């Protein structure tokens, strides 16, 4: 029996999942990779380690598949993270700058002060924020010392993985990932020379943009556990993939993913909407129709930078919990936060405030505040931030929220489900 393998290259690790032709999960493997924090507000990954971990989980998965043939590979990935590498060696030229990285906040503020925001909003649907890839690549080519010669390649994590899976034969991305870079015109569905110049990114380093479903290339013989000739056939940014996976195929259907951050997406159909304050307009996916033309679906998005990352902070920073699984039982020990409020702006605030300079705060602490109150405040913060985004989204779209479909690691918490429902 044959299987299709999905590679989910997230912010903290890589998961490989095998599906049968009925869509059922056959098996999966997961491994984390290292997070690097060289300065406050800076977050980096080693792209070579991401590829090594990807090969490790592919090898572990295929070893357990008992000889089942892998007939196709799809990729979903953390989106805005910027990767640069040398085509001649297939080695990274710098650590990848993660979507959480805020080092280009001043650069983005200067561009906004110079009057460039209307151009950026109109063509990309995004805002001038260090969250997105464009300013990160600009930093890499200037402050980071990365050369811009003919062998330099740049892209998001999907591009890096396809490059390695195909032995350097394909330097590609899909429209959903390209739409997160600040360099892509989402109306024309093409890289924009004016935007590339604005961010000091030479266009020749960027990948070819393809639909979200296509034959991008085939694996080489040295890909762990997979072997040669397996087509890489699907790419989507992780949040757009979640929207598709939650079957939000009609305008107005909405999902929220509670991951490292939280991301609320609403399907708004095949017409590219105008910019909306406090929200992002993004490409949800592009699929070929019966005539092989590319049909593109758009979405409104509210991006929340810190939700699951606050759980990691409780575990690794404060030592309040030993594992993420301890959060809900601890929070359930109290009926409320007893007035404790956490604003987890550890890396600025995303939608709807878009304030890269905001920093986290905890208010309402008394002598009676305990570990359980802080744990519950973290869960409350997930629900309140999601409500802020949905309120902005429904007001802008004129469509009342009919149903919110949820996924992500924190979605299994019954307490979060109840608190979120109470807030909507």
Q: What's the structural domain tally?
A: 2
What is the architecture of the largest domain at the second tier of CATH? 2-Layer Sandwich
| Unreliable parts | none
**Largest beta sheet: strand ordering:** 3-2-1-5-15-14
CATH topology tier name of the largest domain? Nucleotidyltransferase, domain 5
Task: Give the helix proportion (percent range).
Answer: 25-40%
Secondary-structure-derived class: alpha+beta
Beta-strand percent range = 25-35%
Total number of helical segments? Answer: 12
Architecture overview:
The strands form 7 sheets. The chain has a 6-stranded mixed β-sheet. A 5-stranded mixed β-sheet has the order 18-19-17-16-22. A 3-stranded antiparallel β-sheet has the order 7-6-9. Helix 11 (371-397) packs across helix 12. Helix content is 29%, strand content 26%. It is globular, with a radius of gyration of 21 Å. The chain has 2 domains: 3-240, ATPase, nucleotide binding domain (Nucleotidyltransferase, domain 5, 2-Layer Sandwich); 250-424, ATPase, nucleotide binding domain (Nucleotidyltransferase, domain 5), CATH 3.30.420. With 424 residues, it is an alpha+beta fold. The model has no long low-confidence stretch (mean pLDDT 93).
């Amino acid at each position: 029996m044959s299987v299709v393998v999905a590679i989910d290259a997230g912010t903290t690790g890589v998961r490989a999942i095998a599906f049968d032709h009925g869509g059922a999960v056959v098996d999966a493997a997961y491994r984390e990779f290292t997070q690097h924090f060289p300065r406050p507000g800076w977050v980096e990954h080693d792209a070579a380690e991401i590829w090594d971990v990807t090969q490790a989980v592919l090898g572990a998965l295929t070893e357990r598949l008992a000889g089942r043939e892998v007939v196709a590979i799809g990729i979903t990935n953390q989106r805005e993270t910027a990767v640069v590498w040398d085509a001649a060696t297939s080695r990274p030229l710098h650590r990848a700058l993660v979507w959480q990285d805020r080092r280009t906040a001043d650069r983005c503020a200067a561009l906004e002060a110079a009057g460039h925001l209307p151009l950026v909003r109109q063509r990309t649907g995004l805002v001038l924020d260090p969250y997105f890839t464009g300013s990160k690549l600009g930093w890499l080519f200037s402050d980071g010392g990365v050369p811009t010669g003919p062998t330099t390649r740049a892209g998001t994590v999907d591009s890096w993985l396809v490059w390695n899976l195909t032995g350097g034969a394909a330097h590609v991305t899909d429209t959903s990932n390209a739409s997160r870079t600040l360099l892509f015109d989402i109306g024309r569905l093409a890289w924009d020379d004016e935007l590339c110049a604005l961010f000091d990114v030479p266009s020749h380093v960027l990948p070819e943009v393809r639909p979200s479903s296509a034959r991008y290339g085939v694996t080489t013989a040295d890909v762990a556990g997979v072997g040669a000739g397996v087509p890489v056939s699907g790419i989507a940014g992780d949040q757009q993939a979640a929207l598709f996976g939650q079957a939000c195929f009609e305008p107005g259907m909405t999902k929220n993913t509670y991951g490292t951050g939280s991301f609320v997406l609403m399907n708004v159909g095949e017409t590219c909407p105008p910019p909306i304050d406090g929200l992002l307009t993004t490409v949800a996916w592009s699929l070929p129709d019966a005539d092989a033309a590319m049909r593109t679906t758009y979405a409104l998005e509210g991006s929340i930078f810190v939700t699951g990352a606050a759980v990691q902070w409780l575990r690794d920073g404060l030592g309040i919990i030993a594992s993420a699984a301890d959060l809900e039982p601890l929070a359930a020990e109290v009926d409320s936060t007893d007035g404790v409020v956490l604003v987890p702006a550890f890396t600025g605030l995303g939608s709807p405030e878009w304030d890269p300079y905001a920093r986290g705060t905890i208010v309402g602490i008394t002598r009676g505040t305990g570990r359980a109150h802080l744990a519950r405040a973290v869960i409350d913060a997930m629900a309140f931030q999601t409500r802020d985004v949905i309120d902005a989204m429904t007001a802008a779209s004129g469509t009342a929220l009919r149903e919110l479909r949820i996924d992500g690691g924190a979605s299994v918490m019954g307490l979060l489900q109840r608190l979120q429902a109470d807030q909507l």
